[in-house]
What we know:
This protein is α+β, with helices and mostly antiparallel strands.
Amino acid sequence: xxxxxxxxxxxxxxxxxxxxxxxxxxxxxxxxxxxxxxxxxxxxxxxxxxxxxxxxxxxxxxxxxxxxxxxxxxxxxxxxxxxxxxxxxxxxxxxxxxxxxxxxxxxxxxxxxxxxxxxxxxxxxxxxxxxxxxxxxxxxxxxxxxxxxxxxxxxxxxxxxxxxxxxxxxxxxxxxxxxxxxxxxxxxxxxxxxxxxxxxxxxxxxxxxxxxxxxxxxxxxxxxxxxxxxxxxxxxxxxxxxxxxxxxxxxxxxxxxxxxxxxxxx
Length: 266
């Protein structure tokens, strides 16, 4: 998802001092990655609202830097350069390394896919995920993003955000299913419940057939830095099952928090 909001015309709405050429270049790279297939100059120009000559220059720059390659049919696609950089960043993160054994244990205890998420912008990003061997499961892509207001991990993370951020998240909310929370007051009520019981739930609020449980991870300063959770088919994660598995999720969050130096029990 592009980090730059766009008007309907496709022209980025940017504050003063931002380099438009850099924004267009990074936006082009994001489109190539998100589309998941090679794209031609004409298609990219239409998607970005740019002249084909501008697209040619941007692609030439990205190819020179090793981020894209051209194919025999004149289409373009990303190289592994982005993945390589992402792997270096991921390797520097202590959080996934600290969480990994606890996520593995959580999968064993719940037989559901376990993940670790962090808050970025107004969304959650999954920085570690371990899938269950169960053939019927919820898929949580590593590096994937999801709305904070309608996912269990997002709600757990929002508990550590200041009121202006929560208000802005609510303002940007859209309805994904009939169960999606889109009202600010309702979101505040839900977050109050999350703080009281120590975990958040999502019952078909983002994807109609997926449910989840998550709990906040706290660092040595007492700040919410991540959320650990599980996700699975709604048919399997019914209310009674959610209540049964919630202690395992909370326990995993508590253990990861302790590994990060937290003295506060979740």
